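As described in the Methods, two query proteins were run sequentially through the folding procedure within a single session, without resetting any intermediate state between them. The first query and its resulting structure tokens are shown here.
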Amino acid sequence: MIDFRKVLRSFRFAGQGIIDLFRFENNAKVHLLVAILIIITGFVLHLSRTEWAIILVQIGLVWAAEAFNTAIEKLCDFVSPGRHPQIKAIKDLSSGAVLILAITAVTVGIIILGGRLIDTLSITN
């Protein structure tokens, strides 16, 4: 039997995690601002459903990667508050994963939004 109270409580905890991510993490705030600008641009350029799906998946992946990175960094800081070469390597790898996804998302954005912009400018000229 499903305990819906536990499910709702889990969603509440997860929601608090999302709020904390965007409230306290500077990089997440940057990703949020960029996502808002991309979404506005998408509306202006009249993206197709498929293009929207691809763009939104990219935004979600970057946010999820940022959340994992933040969790890993906080865990590292808790386990080893001082400087340690292994902790530094773990943090660098984690932030590198976010960078890989961010570069991929930017590339996808350029392909989709840039292509749409070129198409739009070609039609008006």
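Immediately afterward, the second query was submitted; its sequence and tokens are:
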Amino acid sequence: MNSQIHIRKLPGTHVVRAGGAILGESDAALELTEGTLPPVIYFPRDDLAMAFLDGSARRSSCPRKGEAEYFTIVLNSGQLADAGWSYPAPRDEVARIAGHVAFDAGRVTVERL
């Protein structure tokens, strides 16, 4: 697998929703592609309603991006455990994703407005 990483600012405004709640809206979302993996969209924390996100004890490590911390999305209808993640101190190659949060595309909806 070619694991080269590319990051680009997405044009337009993007919104992320879960369980009917809008978690955030941003005109500064980033798209990270890594080899043949599906693209992942990262939202600036400043553009998210962080009150919906509770820190999780889960951590993981990626040799290309660094150590990830996870978030549980808390909604009136329930919780989506570890459905968001962030790299608080990413490796230099992906420094642009610092201060951003990505979400599990199978459990949230991300769309361009």
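The CA atoms of residues 18 and 108 lie 5 Å apart. We note this only descriptively and draw no conclusion about the first query from it.
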